[in-house]
Amino acid sequence: MAVAVGIGTILAYLPSLGGRFLWDDDRYVTKAALQSVRGLWRIWTKPGATEQYYPMLHTLFWVQHRLWGENPTGYHGVSLATHVASALLFGLLLRRLAVPGAWLAALVFALHPVHVESVAWIAEQKNTISLVFFLAAALAYLRFDETRRPSHYLAALALFVLSFLSKSVTVTLPAALLVALWWKRGTLGWRRDVCPLVPWLLLGGGAGVFSSWVERRFLGAEGPAFDLSIPERILVAGRATLFYLGHVVFPWNLNFVYPKWRLDSASHYQWLFPVAAAGLLVVLLALRRRARAPAAAYLIFVGTLFPVLGFVNLYGDLYSYVWDHWQYLPDAAPLALGASALALAWGRLPLAMQRTGTLGACILGLLLASLTWARCGVFHDKETLYKATLIRNPGCWMAENNLAIYLKESGRLPEAIVHYEKALQLDPERPDIILNNLGIALADAGRLADAVDHYREALKVRPDNVDAENNLGVALATSGRLGEALTLFEDVLLRKPDRNDVRGYLARGLVTEGKVAEAIGQYEAELKHNPDHPEIVHYDLGIAFSQQGRTSEAIEQLEQAVRLRPDYAEAQNDLGIAQANAGHLVEAVVNFRAVMRLRPDAAEAHLNLAEALQAAGQTDEASDEYQRAIRLDPSLAQKSR
Fold this sequence. Notes:
Largest sheet: none
Number of strands: 0
Shape: elongated
Helix content: over 70%
Number of helices: 32
Mean pLDDT: 93
Distance between the termini: 81 Å
Radius of gyration: 30 Å
C-alpha cells in the first residue's frame, strides 16, 4: 500500500514538474545577497532577510539553489518528494495509532486536489517540508510515550523545532498530540500526558507570537485591511472552518484566490456559520461516550486551522480569508476519520461485497488522481494561473494586477496597462499597489507625466508606500528634475535605511550632479546593508573612484565585481581601462581578452585591447585589433588614428 501511494502520487503530479515559477516564488528561491555562507548565517540571524522567518525552510532552499540554481524543475521535484514523504508518514502514524483504513487515508491525502496548491507552488514547500517534520515528530513522540526514554523525547522535540522553523502553523502539534492521547485513552493524566508537552506548548506559543510579529513587521499584515473587530474575526473563523471542511468532502470549484467575504456583524445570516461550527463541536463532544473519534478529529482539524482562521493577521487576508494551502495540514484529521469510517463499514460487509469495496477505493483513487492531474495544469505558469483565477473569481483585483505584471515583464505593455486599469475598477483593498504598478507601466511606455500623476495618487492613498515614493523619484530624475528626486530618495532612506535600491538611485543621482564624494559614501553604505546584487554596487563604486582619480581603489572594487560575477563584461572592460591607466598593461590585456570572449562583437573592447597592446609594444597584434574594431564599428576609425 505504501508503494502504491507513492507511485500513484508521483504519476498524478507529473504535470507539476514542468511548472514554472509563480507569484512570489522569487522571494523564496534564494536571492543573490543570501547565496553565500554569510548569507546562510543571515537567514538564521536576521529576521526580514527572507520573506518569512522560517530559517530551516530557507536553509533547504539555499541548498537547492546550489544544486539547480534558477531551474524550477528541481524545486518542483523536492515539493513532490516531500509531499509523498508526508503521505507515507501520515499512513505510518495512523498505523501506529491503530486507526483503521490508515493507507486509504494516506492515499486520499496524497491525491486530494485541494493539496495541489501546496505541491505545485514552489513557495509552498514550507507546507510539504514542515509537514514531514510535524509527522516525524508525532511518530517519535508516540514512541517516547511507549518507552519513556529521554533519547526518544529529545528526538521528537528536535523534529518539532525543525517543523515550526519551517512553518509556524506546526506549533499546534502538542495540542494535537494531547487530543490524540485523549482519543486513545479516554482521559488525560497530568503527569503522564500533559507535563511532557508543557515545554512544547511554551516553545510553540513563543514561536507563534514571534511569527505573528514578523508577519506584521516585514510582510505588512497591518493597516485598515486587517483592522477587524472581534465579532468580524469570529465570523471569519466560523465561515472558514465550514468552507475548508466542505472542500475536504467536495473538492469542486477550487481556485487560487477565492472571493473575499464582505463581513457584516449585524447580519443574522453570517452568524449562522460560527453557530454551526460551534454547534457541530458541541454535538460531537456530547457523543464522545459512544465514539470519541469524530470529536477528536474535529478538534485537531479546528486546532491546526486556528492560526489561519482570522484571529491573527496574515498577509494573505489582504486578498482572501481562505486559501487552499492553508488547509494542507488540517485536512489530515477529517481524512483519517473518513477513511476509518469507510474501512470499518467495509469490514462488516460480506467477502464478495468487500471485493466491490476494493474496486470502489481504486475508482476513488483514480478520480482524485485525475482531478489532481488537471489541477496541476492550472499552476503551470503565471498567465495560466491568473486567467484561471479570474474565470471563477472575476472580481479578483490581485489576479488582474499580477497578470498585468506578468504581461509587462513579457513585453506586452499595452495589455498590461489595460489589466492594471481593470484592477483599479474592482474596488481593491490596496489601490496604492495598483496605482504604483500602473505608474511603472506608463513610465516604461514613455508617458512619464502620467506615471508621475499615478505615483502621486498612490501616495495620497497611502503616504507610507515607499515603493511609490521611490518610483516617483526615478520618474522625476528621468524627467530632468533631479533635485526633487534626490529629496525624495533621502526621505525614503530616513524611514527605510535598508532600502538598497533607493540608496543606489540616490548615489547615481549624486554622481550626475557631480557630488562624487557623497555618492561614494552612499555606495559604501549600500554594501554594508547586503544588497541583492553586490557586484553592481562594487562596479558603480569603482567607476566613482575612477572619476576621482583614485585608481588603485577603483581597481580593487572592479576586481571584486568581476569575482562576484565572472561574466560581468562591463566590469571587466572598465577594470582593464583602470589597469591600463595604472600601467598594469599585462593585467589589462587579460581583462580585455576576457571581455571579447564574453562579447566577441564588442568593438570598444577590441579598441581598448589594441591600445593596451600598442602601449606594451606589441604593435603588430595591436594593428590587428584596430582593424577588427573598425570592421565591427567603422565610426571608430577616426578614434583609432
